[in-house]
From TrEMBL:
CDD domains linked: Glyco_tranf_GTA_type
Enzyme Commission no: 2.4.-.-
Originating species: Enorma phocaeensis
Main enzyme class: transferase
Protein name (Swiss-Prot/TrEMBL): Glycosyltransferase family 2 protein
Upper taxonomic lineage: Bacteria, Bacillati, Actinomycetota, Coriobacteriia, Coriobacteriales
Amino acid sequence: MGSPAVSVIMPVYNCRDYVGHALGSLAAQSFQDFEIICVDDGSTDGSLDVLSTEKASSRFSSFTIVTSKHEGPGVARNVGLEHARGEYILFLDADDFIEPVLLEHAVSKARALSADIVIWDLWEYNDLYQRDQHPPMGTLSFSNLMDAERAETETCSWRDNPDAIFTSFQNWPWNKLFRKAFLDEERLRFPALRRTEDCTFTCLALVAAKRIALLYERLSHYRVARPGSTMANKDSHPLDFLAALTFLRRGLEERGLWEETKQSFTEWAAQACIHNLVTLNTVGAFQLVYYHLQKGGMQQLGILDRDPESYDAPFVREFLVHLFSDSREDFLFWWASRGERAQGESHAHFDLVEANWLAARDEAERVTRELDRVIIERDEAMTELNCLRRSFEYRFGVKACKIPRAIKNKLVQ
């Protein structure tokens, strides 16, 4: 059997209740020339049993299960890459799922434009409420590199906007299709971290790629608010994000790209530091990360080489000022009060959106009533016209017209 077009690599760790949904979305693909490589990363919840059942079902032409001890999703993906035979690589997390046309559209775009990477948009799937939702504003900003019209026929690269390459596309590997030969040529693999392992891999791929193709379509569903996810358990490895960012800076320096990309890197790194600090769940993890950021972590990343006022995001500028001028207690008080203000702003925004929606609903109801009135008048007019046509006067008029018409026709002859 020949090599498949795509190798789908899925790291699986304690996702028994979700992996079936992920595999179902692969079974529903309109493009079926792919192999599946599931790497069970030491699951203890029965996930491996689900994978074995799927393999036995024979609904996939090529389904490989590799088992390993628990070392994190990065190492698991690397194991999958060693087994991959496809021309392209798709990384799919076991708790996410994809649209039926994803592979068809991504492979078609990659082949048409000879792309090293194809990137597409996504939905967040809120596991708590069981529905799709838009990601936060600015999560992905494709237009920073290329607008939708150009994206139909052209590719881009980091050189089109060096200051925005990392902040525009995020460091997720699962909303991207990679050409495997490109990954091998660039020796791109994931570091052995339990969290943020995708940062180094994906961001280095973004600057190594000569041709990046964009799909302005929401084709992936990223599950959020799931108990037991890696994001929910970040306190177990709170400093991994700093290690990942340090690896990324080192990789940029080794490729001679640091000076050209440091503005995008520091913008991205500052946001990552903020997010990882304020979303921790335990006091001990917070104290550890806070200490490392203050005592050299942000300096090592180059974040402090810039004037805080030069950062694009207002919350980054505000954060940097408070982090280095406040005590830990004052910083926490500021962050809590900022959260209250943000909540108030969110409520005000919600009220505005709700008011606009109510106004639009009222207008739609008014238009509907007006349309119903017009339809009634039309039906009444049609009824009157039909009655007229059936009337004696109408029939007499039609017959009377036949006499002069017959005379006219006779004269013409």
